[in-house]
Amino acid sequence: MKYRIVLAEDEPQIARLTTFKLEKEGYEVIWEKDGGAALESVKVNHPDVVILDVMMPVMDGYQVLKKIKEDENLKNIPVIMLTAKGQERDILKGLDLGSEDYLVKPFHPAELAARIKKIVEK
Amino acid sequence: MDNIYLLLDFFNLKELIIIGTILFLLITVLLLFVCTLYLRIYYNTKNKFLLKKQDEWESSILKYISRKRGKANFTLDIKYKDFQIFGEFVENYLINLRGDDYKRIIQLLKDIGYGEMLMRALDKANKWGKAYAAHFSGLMEYKQTKAKLKNLVNDKSPVVCYNAFEAFNRFGSKKELSQIIQNISKNKNISIIKIIEILSDHGTASNPILIKMLGDPEIDSLGKRLIVDILSFSSAIESSKAIFKLAKKTDDIELKIGCIKAIGSFEDTENASFFIENLNSENWVIRSVSAKALGKIGEERAITVLKNMLYSDKNFWVKFYSAFALKQMHEKGLEALNEILKNHHDTQVSQIINNVIQAEENVLA
Fold it and tell me: Which of A30, B185, B269, B283 reaches 20 to 30 Å from B317, CA-CA?
């Protein structure tokens, strides 16, 4: 079974590398460049996991997370937040809003893949 | 020549000047238009070419990091003239990644000879090229450049100096860094503030150096204020002693205030007497931050003094923070506040106490 991931990341190189790595692990990855597009994509595609960068244009990661958790049809989709170094205190904010997990940048794509695997196996 | 005489027959000098001016302006506008068009086409073409190159680089990098060890079936030929634009492209990976992928990209850079390009740029490039090479050496943690970076740290160009220092900050030892800082602080072209900012970017590992700098007489009050703020922000409790010593010694009010705030933020009860002593300061800000610090550490010895300040101090903020400090002392503090409400009928004091009691703590902290 191919699990579907929506990846919301505005830095194209990192997004493409992450997509490349996750696709090698067998996931289907839909990449969105901003929070608004990511939210629409989640509504349309109903992914198995959502990965949200915190700092994004249009809508930041927290706003998207909040909207996902407020929607009856989407609230059970697990979300992983990607936060920048030095903003670890904001990790609590993400967890409070309902994210399943988080990773601090700089991050290891293999670690992200491992966390996704843990979530989908649950 | 005959044409000129013909023209002079039809027009007088004034009219000729006007016509000449108009023609000149038209030609200038036309030239500007042609130049703009040329530059636009040139940069669009250059940009397209760069994007194509970046796509090729990205494809090679992804192939490299996904290859099994021992296979070398990729090509990535970077010329020295492209060293900076390639560096700017690869930077994003180095800044955002860690672990195996990060290490593989570093190995890739070494395999394609990028390290040698950095060494060459550190020697021969202009100041911007040197600054970039220094910056990238730090990102790549390319220790072969250490000796060159040590020299560049004393470069007369601040931009080269800062980038070299920043690179050293990433991979130099603490001893080497301390030696460099001692030399840098004597260089009048270099801002010690910038050095402190670079140190603070590299987290708590720089704290011992920053703490040592608090005792350096060459560093002015502004630099020390910045250091105190950084140490406070990173909750560097180990700096409490050094900051306390500085607070007692300094005549600079702003620095003293910063020190009191920092020590207060560490919530170290050992310094309670110091805060109580500063409640008598002539400066209202010092009195306020001392009151606030006493509230944070929950020093019940200060209850009586804080009560007195609440109804006798002339400054609104001193009263406010005295009330807030009492609130933070929970039962005994709240008892004191209620007693004041009951026995003293000063409207301002009653209003302050009621506001403080009702307000959420995180709003006031």
Answer: B269
Secondary structure class of B24 (helix, strand, coil): helix
Number of domain units in chain B: 2
Kindly tell me the burial class for residue A99, based on how many C-beta atoms sit within 10 Å of its own C-beta (0-12, 13-18, 19 or more): buried
Contacts of B357 (CB under 8 A, 6+ apart): B327, B334, B337
Question: Cα separation of B162 and B198, whole Å?
Answer: 8
The pTM of this model reads 0.68
Q: Return the minimum-mean-pLDDT range out of A29-43, B182-196, B198-212.
A: B182-196
Burial of B180 (0-12, 13-18, 19+ CB in 10 A): buried
CA-based R_g, chain B, Å = 33
**Residue A74 DSSP symbol:** T
The ipTM, to two decimals, is 0.82
Q: Which of B174, B190, B206 represents a domain boundary (last residue)?
A: B190
Interface test with B, best of A7, A9, A13 (most B CBs within 10 A): A13
Contacts of A108 in chain B (CB under 8 A): 97-102
Tokens describing residue B306: 């804080």
Give the pLDDT confidence of B3-30 residue by residue, as tens digits.
666 666 666 888 888 999 999 999 999 9
Residue B331 makes CB contacts below 8 A (sequence gap 6+) with none
Burial of residue B262, with CB atoms counted within 10 A of its CB: 0-12 exposed, 13-18 middle, 19 or more buried = buried
> CA of A91 to nearest chain B CA: how many angstroms apart?
17
Question: Is it true that domain A4-121 has CATH number 3.30.460.10?
Answer: no
